[in-house]
Design goal:
Aspartate Aminotransferase, domain 2, seven-stranded mixed sheet, 12 strands, alpha/beta, three-stranded antiparallel sheet, single chain, Aspartate Aminotransferase, domain 1
Length: about 375
């Protein structure tokens, strides 16, 4: 079980520095080129200007933010029965997922990770003291919408699997599972009596008109699901380190215990700033989303590589096998760096993806993105 993701991105940074390219187009990290959204942009507020937000917060999070999160989970995500007792405010979705694994799973238990996955999730597993198994899912679901996903999951789940990690819209493939597909995943989790960890960091970024569906909204799922959300993506505020989990109170209490012992409380000023931002979301979010949609459209139109099923998120995940010429993916990453564009190798999203690369389309402005895509196309011989 490799947990080398951090070193992979360090390795890319070192090679970028060695290349010395002044006009490098960085497409390897999933962060935005846009300035912070909400009050930091609209009002110029400093954290100290928020009365009561300079000290500790309750370990579950500020009451007013938890009220907002609970109402949103009920009304938007359609998760039944949610009230503030279901909400745990965390230091980003990463903190929420760690708290769920550490608080709800015995050491040595396994998490079935649907793949390709967010590169940091295996590091979270290792930190929480649990193992993992790979379940290639999203590209298969995109290529064959009628595939038997329940059988696919059953075929790789061992007796030690106690939890299932799901991410839709998926990082890195951009695949969005349909209701029918998500129902199959839910049926598998119920039959195996699994805890479900639903990573919904990209819920706001589906660009094909399809509606986002939370697995906890399906029958019999709310009571076994920890749904995690991130303000890093929705508000372009990754440095604020703020997210939240939605879980039934007995599970939420376990999350609070882990958060208290590791973080104590999520950053208090961030809670105030984000709440103000979300209360005024209609003033800034449409523009942010449209900027990201333009990046998605640009790369979909111009990248000369196959990438199955991308409907949203922040990434494309093309198969570059033919361009490797029998070599290692790092050979291609190095050639791309020499050409002035950075991408990350696909194997950080699962062992089955050694011929893939991950490309972020929100890290630079659309015109700069188009230049990065042109450089990729030239290197792979299709530009």
């Amino acid at each position: 079980m490799s947990t080398e993701k951090g070193s992979v991105f360090d390795r890319i940074a070192e090679r970028m520095a060695a290349c010395g390219a002044e006009d490098m187009v960085p497409l390897h990290i999933g962060d935005t080129y846009l300035p912070p959204a909400g009050p930091a942009r609209l009002e110029g507020l400093e954290p100290g200007e928020l009365p009561g937000y300079g000290g500790y917060a309750p370990t579950k999070g500020r009451e007013e933010l938890r009220l907002w999160c609970a109402a949103k989970a009920r009304e938007v995500n359609r998760i039944p029965g949610v009230d503030p007792a279901w909400i745990q405010v965390t230091g980003g979705a990463t903190s929420a997922l760690f708290a769920a694994m550490r608080g709800c799973l015995e050491p040595g238990a396994e998490v079935l990770l649907t793949a390709p996955w967010w590169p940091v999730i295996t590091t979270v597993c290792a930190a929480a003291g649990v193992g993992w198994r790979e379940a290639p899912l999203y590209l298969q679901a995109a290529q064959d919408p009628g595939a038997d996903l329940e059988a696919l999951l059953e075929g790789v789940a061992g007796p030690g699997v106690k939890a299932l990690y799901v991410s839709t819209p998926n990082n890195p493939s951009g695949v969005v599972l349909s209701r029918e597909q998500l129902e199959q995943v839910a049926a598998f989790a119920r039959r195996r009596d699994l805890l479900v960890l639903s990573d919904e960091a990209y819920e706001d970024f589906i660009f094909t008109g399809r509606e986002h569906l939370s697995i906890a909204a399906l029958p019999g799922m709310a009571e076994r699901t920890v749904t995690t959300f991130s303000f890093s993506k929705t508000c372009a505020l990754s440095g604020y380190r703020l997210g939240y989990a939605v879980a039934p109170p007995p599970i939420a209490a376990r999350l609070e215990q882990v958060v208290t012992g590791s973080l104590y409380n999520a950053p208090t000023p961030a809670q105030g700033l984000v709440l103000r931002a979300m209360e005024r979301r209609e003033e800034w979010f449409p523009e942010l989303r449209e900027r990201y949609r333009l990046g998605w459209q640009a790369i979909r139109e111009e990248l000369a590589l196959p990438s199955s099923g991308s409907e949203g998120g922040f990434f494309l995940f093309p198969d570059v096998g033919p361009a490797l010429g029998g070599g290692d993916v790092w050979d291609l990453v190095d050639r791309l760096l020499a050409a002035g564009v950075s991408v990350s190798p696909g194997y950080v999203s699962g062992p089955s993806y050694r011929s893939h690369i991950r490309i972020c389309f929100v890290s630079v402005e659309p015109e700069r993105l188009r230049e990065g895509v042109r450089r990729i196309n030239r290197v792979v011989g299709r530009g």
